[in-house]
Amino acid sequence: MQTWFYVAAGGAIGACLRFGIAELMALLLGRHFPYGTLAVNVVGSFIMGVAYALISHGHIVEHPMKPLLMVGILGALTTFSSFALDTVVLAQHGAYLKALLNIALNLFLCLAMVVLGMQLVASRV
Protein backbone atom coordinates (compact mmCIF):
# COMPACT_ATOMS: atom_id res chain seq x y z
CA MET A 1 0.00 0.00 0.00
CA GLN A 2 2.95 2.29 0.69
CA THR A 3 4.07 2.04 -2.97
CA TRP A 4 0.63 3.20 -4.12
CA PHE A 5 0.93 6.22 -1.84
CA TYR A 6 4.34 7.07 -3.32
CA VAL A 7 2.96 6.80 -6.85
CA ALA A 8 -0.05 8.98 -5.99
CA ALA A 9 2.05 11.62 -4.22
CA GLY A 10 4.56 11.66 -7.04
CA GLY A 11 1.74 11.92 -9.56
CA ALA A 12 0.41 15.03 -7.84
CA ILE A 13 3.87 16.59 -7.85
CA GLY A 14 4.48 15.67 -11.49
CA ALA A 15 1.11 17.00 -12.63
CA CYS A 16 1.74 20.32 -10.90
CA LEU A 17 5.23 20.50 -12.40
CA ARG A 18 3.80 19.76 -15.86
CA PHE A 19 1.21 22.51 -15.52
CA GLY A 20 3.75 24.98 -14.14
CA ILE A 21 6.33 24.30 -16.83
CA ALA A 22 3.70 24.51 -19.59
CA GLU A 23 2.43 27.84 -18.26
CA LEU A 24 5.97 29.20 -17.89
CA MET A 25 6.87 28.20 -21.45
CA ALA A 26 3.67 29.80 -22.77
CA LEU A 27 4.46 32.97 -20.88
CA LEU A 28 8.04 33.07 -22.14
CA LEU A 29 7.57 31.83 -25.70
CA GLY A 30 3.86 32.16 -26.47
CA ARG A 31 1.15 29.64 -27.26
CA HIS A 32 1.71 29.33 -31.02
CA PHE A 33 3.71 26.09 -30.55
CA PRO A 34 3.46 23.43 -27.82
CA TYR A 35 6.73 24.46 -26.14
CA GLY A 36 5.46 23.30 -22.75
CA THR A 37 4.86 19.76 -23.96
CA LEU A 38 8.23 19.70 -25.67
CA ALA A 39 9.96 20.99 -22.54
CA VAL A 40 8.40 18.45 -20.17
CA ASN A 41 9.10 15.60 -22.61
CA VAL A 42 12.75 16.58 -23.00
CA VAL A 43 13.38 17.30 -19.30
CA GLY A 44 11.46 14.22 -18.14
CA SER A 45 13.31 11.97 -20.58
CA PHE A 46 16.66 13.33 -19.41
CA ILE A 47 15.82 12.78 -15.75
CA MET A 48 14.50 9.28 -16.52
CA GLY A 49 17.77 8.44 -18.30
CA VAL A 50 19.88 9.73 -15.42
CA ALA A 51 17.84 7.86 -12.81
CA TYR A 52 17.84 4.62 -14.80
CA ALA A 53 21.60 4.78 -15.40
CA LEU A 54 22.37 5.51 -11.75
CA ILE A 55 20.27 2.55 -10.62
CA SER A 56 21.36 0.10 -13.33
CA HIS A 57 25.07 0.87 -12.87
CA GLY A 58 24.82 0.47 -9.10
CA HIS A 59 25.69 4.07 -8.27
CA ILE A 60 22.55 4.23 -6.19
CA VAL A 61 20.61 1.28 -4.91
CA GLU A 62 17.08 0.76 -6.06
CA HIS A 63 15.09 2.44 -3.32
CA PRO A 64 11.50 1.78 -2.26
CA MET A 65 10.75 5.38 -3.24
CA LYS A 66 11.74 4.69 -6.86
CA PRO A 67 8.02 4.58 -7.79
CA LEU A 68 7.66 8.13 -6.42
CA LEU A 69 10.15 9.44 -8.99
CA MET A 70 9.99 7.02 -11.91
CA VAL A 71 6.25 6.31 -12.02
CA GLY A 72 4.69 9.12 -10.01
CA ILE A 73 6.60 12.32 -10.71
CA LEU A 74 7.99 11.47 -14.14
CA GLY A 75 4.88 9.54 -15.16
CA ALA A 76 2.67 12.54 -14.49
CA LEU A 77 5.21 15.01 -15.81
CA THR A 78 5.54 13.10 -19.07
CA THR A 79 4.71 9.57 -20.13
CA PHE A 80 7.02 10.23 -23.06
CA SER A 81 9.96 9.61 -20.74
CA SER A 82 8.67 6.08 -20.05
CA PHE A 83 8.15 5.49 -23.76
CA ALA A 84 11.66 6.75 -24.50
CA LEU A 85 13.26 4.61 -21.79
CA ASP A 86 11.36 1.48 -22.87
CA THR A 87 12.47 2.01 -26.47
CA VAL A 88 16.13 2.61 -25.59
CA VAL A 89 16.25 -0.43 -23.27
CA LEU A 90 14.77 -2.63 -26.01
CA ALA A 91 17.44 -1.39 -28.42
CA GLN A 92 20.22 -1.85 -25.87
CA HIS A 93 19.13 -5.47 -25.47
CA GLY A 94 19.34 -5.97 -29.22
CA ALA A 95 15.58 -6.03 -29.74
CA TYR A 96 15.75 -3.48 -32.54
CA LEU A 97 12.58 -4.67 -34.25
CA LYS A 98 10.66 -4.40 -30.98
CA ALA A 99 12.10 -0.92 -30.41
CA LEU A 100 10.99 0.20 -33.87
CA LEU A 101 7.61 -1.45 -33.37
CA ASN A 102 7.23 0.37 -30.07
CA ILE A 103 7.96 3.69 -31.79
CA ALA A 104 5.62 3.00 -34.71
CA LEU A 105 2.74 1.68 -32.62
CA ASN A 106 2.91 4.47 -30.06
CA LEU A 107 3.11 7.14 -32.72
CA PHE A 108 0.48 5.72 -35.08
CA LEU A 109 -2.01 4.44 -32.50
CA CYS A 110 -1.86 7.51 -30.28
CA LEU A 111 -2.30 9.91 -33.19
CA ALA A 112 -5.10 7.73 -34.59
CA MET A 113 -6.88 7.64 -31.22
CA VAL A 114 -6.75 11.43 -30.93
CA VAL A 115 -8.33 11.73 -34.37
CA LEU A 116 -10.91 9.04 -33.56
CA GLY A 117 -11.81 10.69 -30.27
CA MET A 118 -12.19 14.07 -31.96
CA GLN A 119 -14.35 12.56 -34.69
CA LEU A 120 -16.59 10.72 -32.22
CA VAL A 121 -17.24 13.92 -30.31
CA ALA A 122 -17.70 15.99 -33.48
CA SER A 123 -20.28 13.54 -34.82
CA ARG A 124 -22.28 13.76 -31.57
CA VAL A 125 -22.19 17.53 -31.13
Automatic annotation (TrEMBL):
Activity control: Na(+) is not transported, but it plays an essential structural role and its presence is essential for fluoride channel function.
Transmembrane segments: 6-28, 35-55, 67-91, 103-122
Binding annotation for Na(+): 75, 78
GO CC entries: plasma membrane
UniProtKB keywords: Cell inner membrane, Cell membrane, Ion channel, Ion transport, Membrane, Metal-binding, Sodium, Transmembrane, Transmembrane helix, Transport
Cell compartment(s), UniProt: Cell membrane
Catalytic activity as recorded in UniProt: fluoride(in) = fluoride(out)
Membrane topology per record: Multi-pass membrane protein
InterPro entries the record matches: FluC (IPR003691)
Protein family membership: Belongs to the fluoride channel Fluc/FEX (TC 1.A.43) family.
Record's function text: Fluoride-specific ion channel. Important for reducing fluoride concentration in the cell, thus reducing its toxicity.
GO MF terms, alphabetically ordered: fluoride channel activity; metal ion binding
Name of the protein described by the UniProt record: Fluoride-specific ion channel FluC
A Gene Ontology BP annotation from the UniProt entry: cellular detoxification of fluoride
Lineage of the species this protein comes from: Bacteria, Pseudomonadati, Pseudomonadota, Gammaproteobacteria, Aeromonadales
